[in-house]
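Session log. Operator J.P. requested a structure for one protein chain; no other inputs attached. Running the standard single-chain path with token output.
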Amino acid sequence: MTGFVLRNLKLLEPEVGELRPGMELRVEGDRVVEVSERPLAGENAIDCGGRVVMPGLIDCHVHAMLSDVVIPNLEKVPLTLGTARATKLLHEMLNRGFTTVRDTGGADWGLKLAVEEGTIPGPRLFIAGQAIGPTGGHSDPRRRTDIWGRRCHCCNAMSFGMAVSDGAAEVRKSAREQMRQGADQVKIMMSGGVASPYDPLDSLQFSMGEVEAAVEEARAFGRYVCAHAYTPQAITRAAHAGVRTIEHGNLIDDASAALMAEKGMYLVANLVAYYAMKERAAQFGMNSDMLAKNDLVIEGGLKSLEICKRAGVKVAYGSDLLGGLQVDQSREFLLRREVLSPIEVIRAATTIAAEVIRMEGKLGTLRPGAFADLLVLDSDPLKDFGVFQDQGAHIAAIMKGGRFHKMRL
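Structure written below.
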């Protein structure tokens, strides 16, 4: 079918924020062309049985190529195996209703093209290529016995997703290289991380000059910089240097949040990663030092959402799960519900997320002219986020670009 009408549905347009019963929606090609309260003419009509129809979900922080919870283990994974695992992970994301994801380190233009041409099923991909960090930082997972070691890309999926650069000139070159390779955003590391073995969480990574070099190159290429940062100090440095989005931000305070709001920045929070690591990462081999760092940031997650809400910082949906923990991707909805209203959480995964990837009006909405990425849900998400759980079992239909990935109406 190249065109059809969806009937007998309740429309959830996130900007409106409430269900609109008795709506009909027409799709032509890969776009929504008409939404109406009146019956729409059309030979190809699909009865939604009174179900809720909403835009496809957007996860702004995933790692399709990081198929192991313990990132250093990826040095033993050849790229062929890593890519095969990534195709499975992407397929599962689409099954959960995520029709778009923003990969913040690992996925490259080849994986993106494979999805676009239909070689593998998966969400729309917005890629960063290699995440860039300094020697000894969050993008440097080498063992301490690896002195100036170089790793072969053909047999090391870990190095494929990470780049080590020192000094403004090297950072500038690395940023240019990622964009040459098709990056939609440039990812840099500005503080310590949980999953890296040796850097303290409160370490400041990249000087102001290094960050400014990345930002200048990204802007010159029509792209932007997203920064891994936990602490107020790292967030403040990122804001003054022109970074557009902060990833994580668990330890944010009122002052750094106010600065983000002043600069028009976004926070991409990902609470579920920390809960999943606390509960199950040890069984995958994550060591006690990493788990101790996880404990330092887990309690700041919900608080960071409250701080950003007070300051007026827009917060997008992210999961940041690694390897076998990625099955928890939709659990983020349940965690955010503890401090936010259902529609605020849904907007984080639709309209706000679309702004982050600079696709507002085209994704995260079902207004005419938007891409026909939509979900048909068995129950009302404004009343129960259980509809997003169980790996997509409660989603009756999933459409991406006007084509049904799943259909059981």
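Operator note: The mean pLDDT is 93.
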